[in-house]
Amino acid sequence: MERKRLEIKNKSDCTGCRACEKLCSVNCIKMVEDKEGFIFPEIDEEKCIHCGICRDRCPERKERKANQEFTIYGMKSKEISVSQKSTSAGIAYLLSRQVIKNKGVVVGCAYLEKLIPGQIRVDSIEEIEKLRGSKYVFSDTKDTYQEVKQDLAENREVLYLGTPCQIGGLYAFLGKPSPLLYTVDIVCHGVPSSKLFLNYIDDLENKYKEKIIDYQFRNKDKAEWGEFCAKIVLANGKVNYRKADNDPYYSHFLTGTTYRDCCYECQYASMNRVGDITLGDFWGIEQYDSHFYSPQGVSLVICNSEKGKKMIQELEEDTLVKVFEEAQAVRKNANLVRPTKREKIRDTIYEGIDELSSQEYIKKKLKVQMSPKQIIKRIIPKKMKKIVKKWI
Ligand SMILES: Cc1cc2nc3c(=O)[nH]c(=O)nc-3n(C[C@H](O)[C@H](O)[C@H](O)COP(=O)(O)OP(=O)(O)OC[C@H]3O[C@@H](n4cnc5c(N)ncnc54)[C@H](O)[C@@H]3O)c2cc1C
Question: Is residue 344 in some structural domain?
């Protein structure tokens, strides 16, 4: 019988997870980049056998069971260097290290060629370094879903770390649960395209007159955890630091004006999480427990399943852990309650990306964005901010 196949009527209906492409038994689905640089499935009419699997298994078309059972922790690593080199407090690193010590494999996001992020599979502790740090850009799942299936078939433990939609895509692809699979979804407020990021990198390279070989979004060499400072490493060995509110790409990322369409309607932006564990920044922790605050960062960890709890228990010796309430976790992390609001500017922000040079495009379309709160924050001197923070 001929079954209905996948049809993307609205761009917001597709996260670009690649589950449909990888499930197709006749390889008739290709992921194609749109003008903004986001990938979408395209079906080859001639090859399609109308089996309907692409539509039936698409995670965007499935209702998810509500998860009422979760435990919320504030966590930090006992080793300061682990937090110092990570975005929040390095719990992603510790979980990855634990799985590799147990002879398992880890999948996470690394820069591939030319600073384009993508999911890769690693099986050594040295390689986890590539996954460290948030890349605030769309990460392509590539062939990782098939690699996970293969590893599970060979009875290896797998830890998959990614955005909630990547985890949803993985479960859709696999079709059935596996006791050997552990998943971590990150609290996510949305992803811009790698095309936009590369455009911005090109503009910076023109300014610096040098190639950029590494870009760390949340570096802590010269800034504390909450300060959002990027470290840019040039091919000649020089290093530059840029604060988010002075930077065209980063400020637009934080104000949410450049995301993939689906991010503004994200079904995962709630406490009904998809992974065994959810990781994020524990913003506002100093207001609930000033002794637990650390300038190197505190992670928000939500255990959504027994497997998740087991993994966190295995980190007992390496971490400091405290239980918190749901209201405390969500108060300053809006994406645990709702998706980012789509502002009007999103409709036109990518216009000209192909036609203009990177310098012209960045200057014209990505003017530095500052909210009134950021403007006030900038005016107040650092010393004063510390006094106010302490007083609060
Ligand atoms: C696009 C994006 C938006 C985010 N938004 C929020 C938010 O609104 N609130 C909040 O509390 N936290 C947010 N985070 C999560 C936060 O930045 C940290 O990644 C998280 O707290 C884990 O920190 P860590 O120190 O344990 O690990 P880290 O050292 O930061 O490791 C991060 C892990 O995330 C994975 N990762 C990195 N970049 C990507 C990517 N582009 N796509 C998929 N996986 C990736 C890596 O594989 C790695 O394992 C976001 C992260 C990303 C990538």
Answer: no
